[in-house]
Amino acid sequence: MYVDRASHKKGVGAGVVFVTSEGEVLPYSFTLMQNCSNNVAEYQALIFGQEMAVDTKQRHMKVYGDSQLVINQLLGLYEVKKPKLLLYHNYAKRLMGWLGDVELEHLPRRDNKQADALAKLASTLSMTDKEVRIPICKSWVIPPVFSDDEDDMF
């Protein structure tokens, strides 16, 4: 599972990308309903993914995120100093316990592009009050070749 967040003045979003053992990619975008710090948004993205994994009864999961702070707090390498983050940290740790075998790894932002793109999309779409569903299609247009006589038809 890859997680990321995006925030700006007008919205905050979270992106979660699951990659199954068969290589299937399952992308999710979440528009956060409140403005918050980048670190809270990062925890939100992680928790959304964890809750989805718990719901599907996953028992082994690798989690990748580009927030050095959040990943290292969950690994116990960094102390959680802000009380507001402690609530999210404790819940994320509890979810990790429910999931069983969870590996956490920090990765560079450049290696987390899909989750980042989904988070940016959600943060941009957060300006609307309605849920937005956006199909992403793979496609390519191959223009037909026309003779000179056929050009006059249009």
TrEMBL record:
InterPro entries assigned: RNaseH-like_sf (IPR012337), RNaseH_domain (IPR002156), RNaseH_sf (IPR036397)
A Pfam family annotated for this UniProt entry: RVT_3
GO MF entries: nucleic acid binding; RNA-DNA hybrid ribonuclease activity
Superkingdom classification of source: Eukaryota
Residue intervals of the RNase H type-1 domain: 1-124
Stated name of the protein: RNase H type-1 domain-containing protein
Organism of origin: Sesamum radiatum (Black benniseed)
Lineage of source species: Eukaryota, Viridiplantae, Streptophyta, Embryophyta, Tracheophyta
